[in-house]
Each structure stands twice: as structure tokens, then as C-alpha cells.
Amino acid sequence: MPASVKAYSPGHISGYFSRITGGRPEDTGSIGAGLVLSDGVTVTVTRSEVTDVLVLADGMANRGSPPIEEALDRLGVTATIVTESALPIGSGFGLSAASLLATIMAANKIFSLSMGISEIAQLAHSIEVECGNGLGDVAAELGGGLVCRTAPGITGVTCRLNVGMEPVAIVSLAPIPTQNVLSTPASMERVAAAYPGRCPRDIEDFFILSRQFAESSGLITEQVNTILSACDNAGILASMTMLGEGVFAIGEDAGAVLSQFGKVYSTMVADEGPKILEVTS
Ligand SMILES: Nc1ncnc2c1ncn2[C@@H]1O[C@H](COP(=O)(O)OP(=O)(O)O)[C@@H](O)[C@H]1O
Ligand SMILES: CC(C)(COP(=O)(O)O)[C@@H](O)C(=O)O
């Protein structure tokens, strides 16, 4: 019986999305496209009498995480959880989904729950949808690459382009609480109308579609607009992080251009999905 298990899930930046509301969490979610990020969440689950969650992200430490606590409740277990991420929370990196995937995967191992990856993903997706924290991140984070989802739910990925270990530079100005946007009908109407309606052909096409979506979604702030203009002037492919007040970009000079506007996070397109990292007896 292991004493603790460590698991990892990649993160995910959506370039564009559109909500699909079904009758159940299984058929509710989003369609859209995004990049799976090698910087995601590493979670250590340790047996304990009471549940306690410590969230370490971008140099900050916080106690408690409603979605993680909900996941443990639904599994009927208690544990000490430490989640670690180099990226900030609430800024469009799909970290709530990544923390759920890694936690449930590690809990499955430590408590011998015999769940398969579909069951793990379904539980993570249902909690994401029910808490209003995300729509399509769980499906995307089940593998690496440039992902296009054409149906809601965990099996909605129809295309996963392998773009290699492409470096991605990100500047994040402020969080945008996902719940606020998803629960504002006027915002969601503009988002729905802005949806480009097709999958990207390649990474360049992905940035073009994402940028068109960002421009017409009404989500671009003045500062994001300034950064995107600087990227345009330098000939850099860039768009807005959905949903966070930030910009992600690729290309050799991306980091240097973004660094004029704030701290730059350097990550990569991930080449794989969630996995167990360590089992300690
Ligand atoms: N790395 C993490 N570890 C634990 N809980 C997390 C993590 N990331 C997000 N959460 C939980 O999910 C909630 C919603 O996060 P959200 O704004 O959707 O973040 P993101 O945009 O990064 O997915 C947070 O308030 C927090 O309770
Ligand atoms: C864009 C979003 C609805 C939220 O993403 P995040 O803020 O990273 O939780 C995502 O889940 C999607 O469906 O594409």
C-alpha cells in the first residue's frame, strides 16, 4: 500500500472556444482549439485522516481548493494534497482541470480504486462543469499537442496535431475568473458569435483563428490590445489567453517582446497527457 503518490497533468491554453450545453455534465462542455502545455500541475497525495489541500502556484501558497475537495468527497477518501504549478491560477492555463486530473489519478493509485483513464477524466470533467471552472480543458489535457475539440465532453477531441516541443512564451497581467465570464449571458453571446467554426490546419492557422476570435469576442482588454499590437509589429504569432488577461506567443523573439509588458513564463507544447510520476511506500 503506497504512503504517497505523485502525479502530473499538463495545462492547456484555449485560443478559441464555444460553450455547448447538454442535459448532463457528460455532454456539456466546449468545442474549440488550444495548446496543451508541458507546465501543468504536479500533485502529491498522501494518506491522512482529514483532507487538507495546499496549493503552490507561481511562488504563492494557499490552503484549500473547492474542486479538489469535491473530488476527494466523491471518491469517498481523505488525504493531504499538495499541488504545484509554475504558472499562475485563474489565468487561462486550465490548471483547475490539470489539478483535478492529477489528483484523481494519484488518488486512484494510492487507494486502489481501479478507475480507468476514462472514468478519471469523466469525474474531473463533471466537477469542472458543475463548479463552472472550465469546459474543455480536461478533454484537451488527456494528450499533448495542438488540440481541436468538435464535441463537448471527454471524447470531443477530433484532431491532435503534433507540433513538436514548440516553445511558448506567455505574459499574464491578471486573472479573469472563469465562472464570471461563463455566467454572464452577454459575454457568452459574443463568445458564441465569435467562434470560427473550424479546426486549425496548423499552428500558424491556429494563431490566426484565435486572434480573430479574441478580437470579436469582446474579451480583449486595452492592455492585451497593446501587447498584441507590439507582437504584430515584430511579426510574432500571438493571441489572448482564454480565460485570463494575458497573451501567449510563439517564435524566437516572442519572449523578448512580451518581457516589455511583465514577467514572461516560458513553457512548451506538451507531448503527452497525465501520468503517475512517483509511488512511495
Ligand atoms: N493548481 C491548482 N491546484 C488546486 N486547485 C486549483 C488549481 N488551479 C485551480 N484550482 C481551483 O480551481 C478554481 C478555479 O480555477 P480557474 O479560475 O478555473 O483556474 P484556471 O483558469 O487556472 O483553470 C480555483 O479557485 C481553485 O480553487
Ligand atoms: C476557456 C475555458 C472555458 C476556461 O479555461 P480556464 O480559464 O483555463 O479554466 C476552457 O475550459 C475551454 O473550454 O476552452
UniProtKB/TrEMBL annotation:
It is an enzyme of class 2 (transferase). Pathway: Cofactor biosynthesis; coenzyme A biosynthesis. Gene3D superfamilies: 3.30.230.10. InterPro entries: GHMP_kinase_N_dom, PoK, Ribosomal_Su5_D2-typ_SF, Ribsml_uS5_D2-typ_fold_subgr. Residues 73-145 form the GHMP kinase N-terminal domain. The keyword Transferase applies. Keywords: ATP-binding, Coenzyme A biosynthesis, Kinase, Nucleotide-binding, Transferase. One of its GO terms (biological process) is coenzyme A biosynthetic process. Signal peptide: none annotated. Its EC number is 2.7.1.169. One of its GO terms (molecular function) is ATP binding. SUPFAM superfamilies: Ribosomal protein S5 domain 2-like (SSF54211). It catalyses: (R)-pantoate + ATP = (R)-4-phosphopantoate + ADP + H(+). Coiled coil: none annotated. Phosphorylates (R)-pantoate to form (R)-4-phosphopantoate in the CoA biosynthesis pathway. Belongs to the GHMP kinase family. PoK subfamily. This is Pantoate kinase. The lineage of its organism: Archaea, Methanobacteriati, Methanobacteriota, Stenosarchaea group, Methanomicrobia.
